[in-house]
Amino acid sequence: MELIITEKDNAARRIADILSGESAEADRQNGVNVYKWGGKRCIGLSGHVVGVDFPPEYNDWRDVEPVELIDASVEKQPTKENIVRTLRLLARDASRVTIATDYDREGELIGKEAWELVREVNEDVPIQRVRFSSITKNEVSSAFENPDELDFDLAAAGEARQIIDLIWGAALTRFLSLSARQLGNDFISVGRVQSPTLKLIVDREREIQAFDPEEYWEMFADLQKDDEAFESQYFYRDEDGNEAERVWDEETAEKAYETLESATQATVDSVSRRTRTDTPPAPFNTTQFIRAAGSLGYSAQRAMSIAEDLYTAGYITYPRTDNTVYPDDLDPEELLDTFVGNYHFGDDADGLLEQDDIEPTEGDEETTDHPPIHPTEDIPTKGELGDDEWDVYELVVRRFFATVAESAKWEHLKVVSTVDDLTLKANGKRLLKEGYHAVYPYFNTSENYVPNVEEGEDLSIIDTRIEDKQTQPPRRYGQSRLIEKMEKMGIGTKSTRHNTIQKLYDRGYLESDPPRPTRLAQAVVKAAEDYADLVVSETMTRELEEDMTAIAEGEADLEDVADSSREILATVFDDLEESREEIGKQLQQSLKEDKTLGPCPECGEDLLVRQSRRGSYFVGCDGYPDCTYTLPLPNKGKPLILDETCEDHDLREVKILAGRSTFVHGCPLCKAEEAEEAEDRIIGECPQCGEGAGSESQRDEGGETAEEHGGELAIKKLQTGSRLVGCTRYPDCDYSLPLPRRGEIEVTDERCEEHDLPELVIHNDTEQSSAGQSDESDDGDEPWELGCPICNYEEFKQRERKSGLEVIDGIGAKTAEKLAEAGIDTIDDLKDAEAETVAEQVNGVSEDRLRNWQAKAD
DNA sequence: GCAAGGTC
């Protein structure tokens, strides 16, 4: 039996399809897909299936001095047990093994990990390596016709990175965490990629804090030719002879403006015209894709997650790529052809095909990993995708269109005129030829109209303005800008950069969007700069890259490189150990600042966000135990203190970070007061233990006795901030119904006949409309008529049952409906379904997509 | 429980 190993299941399936001529069948072993045909088996890994770590005796942070990690051994352990098990099982009986992981350094390392697993159980089987940069019939077939050997040196380069990153990251992370006594979930982390990224953000924040605004003036005049007016701006030549518009001195500005204001005419001094070619953008790599999606309002994380869904569904190519040059295998005309006749893209495709020749643009980066991101020939209908998915899909399609479209042409018209000794200029631009903008509407193509004037012509001044302005501090980096910066600095990879930024949020280093560093972040960067400069510098990565290249080219040895890195870290630790207490104090100080809300209303000490022994968060006084003042916090996620301060209590507001359900909680004292007011509005009898519930409670197996009756239903607000309708006899009776977290609850006079409860109406609170989170479906302006809380809950459960399939990524409401018609209602139905038959029954659902869902369902 | 890198 011949065994083929790929980096991921998706690649395994597609390669099996290509090599078998679509005859391969999927067989699940240990929950892993194995594709088989003839005497062949193909298995997909899940990236790295083994990972590096220290031996278990180093596990307890308190028992080990961080410096000891420098010389600790580093071991490889399986991290994906079931895949490793299945691979070993197949390898035992293999007569030949082909490693077909991705064509990049990490792919070579993943290939070597597979090689080692195979060798453990089969000493003699020949193992070959194939390389291809896109999973197309031509590339894959020719790769398998010309197999190569695994490149152990290249893999070793990757191993060096693993070891060095682990040792530096773990030793420094533990050192900082221990010296600041931050051990639980809130350890203080440091790493080769995350720390330089954090420094980038902190440096920008320092610039902003140090920024001293300067006042300046700008002047404008509206000139008119015939009936056409246009704006001109005052400018002068600075010391270097460059055009400058800002006047830094008030007196000078006012003097000039007096001249301008009192004039009635300007004379055209020069008119210059030039045309500029505006070339279409290069194909998408990951970074540029994230940037473009960012300008549509998607966070890096969200953009990638949507792209991954579109990829798994087969609509776009692999979204993690550095490549900006289409491979020879891609025939743009052929791909355009598949869009002909499409409702949304057909006309644009027709237009592009009419061009004389189709020559795609190329970016600077040409790599072997994957093709640039482009649509595949499998085109979804709009209904098959969610709104966001469609938005992103359209972006990818249109970007592909743009790369094969013609250039645009602009005409720039510059008119310089004079008023006495003052000069004015107007820059006009006009789009002469739309070119690629016709198919790619994401760039700004606004024109600025300046009429045709001639030298020497007099124009009347119809209005003048002087504007008093201030220089602005530099802007914070947005997420996509950060990712671009990281790419330029050479840190992180196409697959990890967006996660790194997320990690910085999760670690309590960043807040808000665009990200702002916390005090802790600033202290960590400062400490690293003072004692371990290398770990916040891009130099570390650059030197590592050089070492890795040397290893890959056989000029250096993995062990030597790792050892010299250990030596450098050891000298770093010499300095660190000396200042351990000072560093710890600084970190603790900034940690406290990040937790401080403001003065305690009882004793005036600082109120802090604290964590109970059980792990839940609350507000407590720094004067504890002398002062025992506390306030509750929601126990949903992690609280984050904002800069906004409550005017009534002088306390900073709190935001609760809970992934996608992150929300602003506000001032905890205000919330506590509100909760007290809103407490326990009684709306009726408890259906489980109320007076009238006697006959029903007989169903209870425990046989409740009569004195345990008399419960009433009340609207309650829990300390966590969530609300519910619950029984007043809680905890003896645990009957409860859910209520929405937000909005004011009105108890109306209408009553539900069936349950004898009042109908409820939820009014939106307008002050804090979902900050940045647009996922709330019910945040319109209309109040929500929730109705009887029992009826509402029953309807909710009904709906939830129906949409059981929608928990799977890629299955929307419409698809779920279609599947239900084919008798697939639940996850179990889906798992049992025969993909081939279902694909025939259900329109628009391919076998591939179904298999994919089935895999997810497990 | 530490990193960064794959992938889900």
Q: Could you please describe the fold and organization of this structure?
A:
With 858 residues, the chain is α+β, with helices and mostly antiparallel strands. The chain folds into seven domains: 2-45 and 80-150, Rossmann fold (3-Layer(aba) Sandwich); 181-207 and 479-586, Topoisomerase I, domain 2; 215-279 and 409-470, Topoisomerase I, domain 3 (Distorted Sandwich), CATH 2.70.20.10; 286-406, Topoisomerase I, domain 4 (Orthogonal Bundle); 600-674; 678-801, no CATH class; 808-857, DNA polymerase, domain 1 (Orthogonal Bundle). The protein is 36% helix and 22% strand. It is built from 25 helices and 31 strands. The strands form eight sheets. A six-stranded mixed β-sheet has the order 2-3-4-1-7-8, sandwiched between helices. Strands 9-10-14-13-12-15 form a six-stranded antiparallel barrel. Helix 2 (81-92) crosses helix 3, helix 3 crosses helix 5 and helix 15 runs antiparallel to helix 18. The two termini are 28 Å apart. Residues 151-573 form the Topo IA-type catalytic domain. It is an enzyme of class 5 (isomerase). Residues 1-133 form the Toprim domain.
Tags for this entry?
Rossmann fold; DNA-binding; metal-binding; 36% helix; six-stranded antiparallel barrel; single chain; Topoisomerase I, domain 3; Topoisomerase I, domain 2; magnesium; DNA topoisomerase 1; 25 helices; 858 residues
What is this structure, in a nutshell?
The chain is an alpha+beta fold and about 850 residues long. Helix content is about 35%, strand content about 20%. The chain contains 25 helices and 31 strands.
